[in-house]
């Protein structure tokens, strides 16, 4: 936990930034863009395999557009010499300046590629006879999920330990137990309407109801006509409080659970920040394409998570600024679509 507290301390001692301060490193961590549903509801009229063009959990065209626009936004922030956050990047991709890593899932790999298409477009005046005149290839690195220790939230080898610990944490949480007891009739109705197995395990039932919300959210977002029974029972409204409470559970994690879910990424951030300050690394821009759980985990470790699911294509940026009078400032900001930047 020393890494966690040391990095939080760095972020908390920001001070005021002067106009002449210089940005020397940005680390972008983002959630993938809009996607298809990942899990079927037993009694639904749709299945992820048959009802979505690319199958379950895949980036949609809207999701690709999400990150194309996001890439353009950060290109303006970091490559325009008139921008206060000008990073001094070459307008063309230079592997010594930029490093990109994604989890080994189609939706995150494709989100990274879409973002990079917006960030590194082919410039006016490029060779118009080249097949690459509309696209700059940029390397996106990944590792198999079985050995992804940094960007999947809880690494696979640690999941059994985390799940056992977190189950105990949640099942001893008074708010959760009160919620489930007060929702006994609603829970039974949801299970029956959806066709989920009836189980006395509060947490197992809670988990499948959370997944129901995600599936319905995807269907509604893409203008699917919901099953008549789902509409008549107001199923979407019934399941939403369960999903909302599920994200709040990040804020009741023990220190061990925080370390298991976000500790490796937190250590990586600290290492990269230190390397930039000490000038031992040439990278100016580091990008991690990941998931909502990844962002929730790192924000929880930093003590600033609001308990709300991060929307598609949300970007967290850790920026390292060199101060005009000496020393450095670390800034944590958040960007989503056309909203103003949020500083933590």
SSE diagram, text form:
Layout (H helix, E strand, L loop, with lengths): L1 H11 L9 E10 L16 H4 L9 H19 L18 E5 L3 H14 L39 H13 L2 H9 L1 H11 L7 H20 L6 H5 L2 H14 L6 H24 L6 E6 L1 H10 L13 E8 L5 E8 L6 E2 L1
Parallel strand pairs: 1-3, 2-3
Antiparallel strand pairs: 1-4, 4-5, 5-6
Helix pairs in contact: 3-4, 5-11, 7-8, 8-10, 11-12
Keywords:
disordered N terminus, alpha/beta, globular, 6-stranded mixed sheet, 344 residues
Identify low-pLDDT runs: 1-6
Query: What does the radius of gyration come to?
Result: 22 Å
The main β sheet shows up as: 6 strands, mixed
What string gives the helices and strands in order? HEHHEHHHHHHHHEHEEE
DSSP strand (E) fraction?
A: 5-15%
Give the overall shape, derived from the CA principal axes: globular
Trace the largest sheet across and list its strands.
2-3-1-4-5-6
Give the strand tally.
6
Distance between the termini: 21 Å
Structural class: alpha/beta
Give average pLDDT, whole number.
91
Q: How many helices?
A: 12
Helical residues, percent: 40-55%
Give a verbal description of the structure:
The protein has 344 residues and is of the alpha/beta class. Helices cover 45% and strands 11% of the residues. A six-stranded mixed sheet has the order 2-3-1-4-5-6. It is globular.
